[in-house]
Design a protein that fits this description.
With about 550 residues, this protein is an alpha/beta fold. The protein has two domains: about 5-290, Rossmann fold (3-Layer(aba) Sandwich); about 340-555, Nucleotidyltransferase, domain 5 (2-Layer Sandwich). About 40% of the residues lie in helices and about 15% in strands. The chain contains 18 helices and 20 strands. It has helices spanning about 5-15, 25-40, 50-65, 80-90, 115-130, 145-160, 160-165, 215-225, 245-260, 300-310, 315-325, 340-345, 405-410, 425-440, 450-460, 470-485, 495-505, 530-545; strands at about 45-50, 90-95, 105-110, 135-140, 170, 175-180, 185-190, 200-205, 235-240, 270-275, 355-360, 370-375, 385-395, 415-420, 440-445, 465, 490, 505-510, 515-520, 555. An eight-stranded mixed beta sheet has the order 5-6-7-4-8-9-3-10, with helices on both faces. It starts with a helix and ends with a strand.
Length: about 550
């Protein structure tokens, strides 16, 4: 059976249901079938070259030999879904010039799918058979130590094949493989230099979910824009799922899904995602092949079953199992408030007029978001705390106020735009005065680092004001208590969209001596309104004991 017949068998199995497949996998196969129909039309922008696809698929078992574990010494036999990927990437051609149709590929699968060996094989295939003058192929990752894993697999393929050993030269100290036309394959990490002046033919992005920092995104941008003069570049992402802080992966996955759904027509992107569907039970082993079709081959059933057993009673293991072995997005391990805990508080706020309230003010940076947070303590035992917030932003700040979610929050007046390019403290004073008129305002917490003058003005108006330093020792007790009450459903927010946005960005940072404080870590989004609420909550917690002569030493009255 040739490659084309095996691909057709795979396609028929996925579409008939004989092969267990998730919805996104079925959409990728359906897209292939629909594209074959479209390619028959005279005005189709692409066609399928069966001969070239057969050659590409034959390259793996005829040239590449495994060197690891139980497959050592065996030819690289592509499994059905891998065959489908190679068939598509090398078979589809642009009608205008016969070059590769797909210039980008977004591929996702669970751990133990064989990503490293598969990507290494794709690199050698492009290096040797694309007929590209002086091809430059870069195996990249956030760290060079990770990037070299693919490069080292390529080198093992070279060593195991006499024909490759003759054609390819290696400079191990520089993680570079070259051939006679001065083409090269090189490992490159975002933690090192040497990314200027590159002219890539193929780039592999390993574990895209880890590409989060400015250095990572800088390398990503350089490589994506460095091949404009190449005839048929290929940017290849093969990854497992990320978490809610994997911004690049979230964006690329969302776009890939739009292409698969037909919401966006992008003939240059090949998308193939193996994952459990959203409503699938991760503990039902009948679902596992959706993310890991190689169970029983490269991945072991017993390993999955042992992990699932532990995941059923251990939250950290469950998160890892769902993410790495079922290939589904999970919440960040450092997220302070889970979606489940937050949703417990998404009930309507009661009438708050006249209620005792405590405030917190976070002025943030002078040219960015500032916030007033309010916390209403329970009127009687058994009732929840209530929280709300208002944010302020200068019209001429550096942020694009037409982008979401800022535009929507401005429209709903959860964020107030003030004139100029710096924080309008008078607008915040006006909101404090409004709160004073509607509620029974007892106290306000401020950050002494940037709001001491603001606090002095509050005191002059007869408002009890307390300094709340941002050190972990001040945050630890109120922050931990806030998280405990959130998880118990004892803090309500009325599904406030401003606070809900901040909740997605709020992280928990723990010091070396175990003290906890809120943080946004690497996130570029904002948490100021929720920080202001947390300061207000701290006031609500300590106000009674402080006024009654209890422990109030952690703050200093202005």
């Amino acid at each position: 059976m040739n490659a084309g017949q095996r691909v057709q068998e795979y396609v028929d199995g996925v579409l008939s249901g004989d092969i267990v497949a998730g919805e996104l996998q079925r959409l990728a196969v359906r897209r292939y079938v629909d594209d074959l129909k479209q390619a028959r039309k005279k005005n189709a922008p692409f066609y399928f070259d069966t001969q070239l696809a057969e050659i590409a698929c034959a390259f793996f078992p005829s040239v590449l030999v495994h060197s690891s574990a139980e497959f050592a010494g065996q030819p690289f036999q592509l499994l059905p879904d891998q065959l489908f990927i190679v068939w598509n990437l090398w078979g589809w051609r642009r009608r205008t010039d016969g070059t590769r149709r797909f210039r980008s590929a977004h591929i996702e699968a669970a751990r133990k799918w064989g990503k490293t060996a598969f990507v290494a094989g794709l690199c050698l295939l492009a290096f040797l058979l694309d007929n590209e003058a002086r091809p430059e192929i870069y195996c990249t990752a956030t760290k060079r130590s990770q990037a070299k894993l693919v490069w080292e697999e390529i080198d093992r393929f070279r060593i195991a094949s006499p024909s490759l050993t003759k054609r390819l030269n290696v400079k191990a100290s520089e993680y570079t493989i070259s051939k006679a036309d001065r083409g090269l394959i090189k490992a490159l990490g975002a933690d090192g230099g040497g990314s200027d002046g590159l002219f890539p033919h193929v780039v592999t992005f390993d574990e895209q979910h880890e590409w989060k920092t400015a250095a990572h995104l800088k390398l990503w941008a350089k490589l994506r824009t460095g091949s404009s003069a190449r005839r048929q570049p290929l940017f290849l992402t093969v990854t497992t799922a990320g978490d809610d802080q994997s911004k690049l992966w979230l964006s690329e996955r969302a776009y890939a899904v739009k292409v698969l759904n037909g919401d966006v027509q992008d003939d240059a992107l090949f998308a193939f995602v193996l994952c459990l569907d959203d409503d699938d039970d991760i503990f039902d082993e009948d679902n596992w092949p959706k993310a890991q079709p190689h169970l029983g081959i490269t991945a072991k059933w017993d390993d999955y079953r042992q992990l699932a057993l532990k995941a059923a009673s251990d939250e950290a293991t469950r998160r890892d199992f769902e993410r790495y072995y079922c290939n589904r997005r999970v919440e960040s391990v450092n997220r302070a408030i889970s979606d489940i805990a937050w949703n417990l508080g998404a009930v309507d706020l009661p009438v708050l007029s006249g209620r005792i309230v405590h405030g917190g003010v976070d002025l943030g940076w002078r040219d960015d978001l500032a916030a007033l947070g309010l916390c209403f303590p329970p009127k009687r035992l058994g009732e929840p705390y209530a929280i709300k917030a208002t944010a302020f932003i200068p019209a001429d700040c550096q942020r694009d106020l037409t982008e979401q979610p800022l535009a929507g929050l401005i429209r709903s007046k959860h964020i107030i735009v003030t004139p100029g390019n710096t924080t309008d403290v008078q607008a915040i004073h006006a909101s404090v005065q409004e709160a004073r008129e509607i509620y029974t305002l007892k106290s306000i917490a401020i950050d002494p680092n940037n709001a001491r003058q603001f606090g002095t003005e509050l005191v002059s108006k007869g408002i009890q004001t307390y300094e709340f330093g941002q050190q972990a020792r001040n945050w630890n007790e109120p922050f931990r208590e806030f998280l405990r009450l959130m998880a118990a459903g004892e803090i309500i927010h009325g599904n406030d969209p401003l606070l809900s946005w901040c909740q997605q960005n709020l992280m928990a940072w723990t010091s070396g001596d175990g003290l906890m404080k809120p943080s946004k870590q690497a996130s570029t989004e904002k948490i100021d309104p929720l920080v202001a609420v947390l300061m207000a909550f701290s006031e609500a917690m300590f106000h009674a004991s402080r006024d009654g002569g209890g422990d109030g030493a952690r703050v200093r009255i202005l």
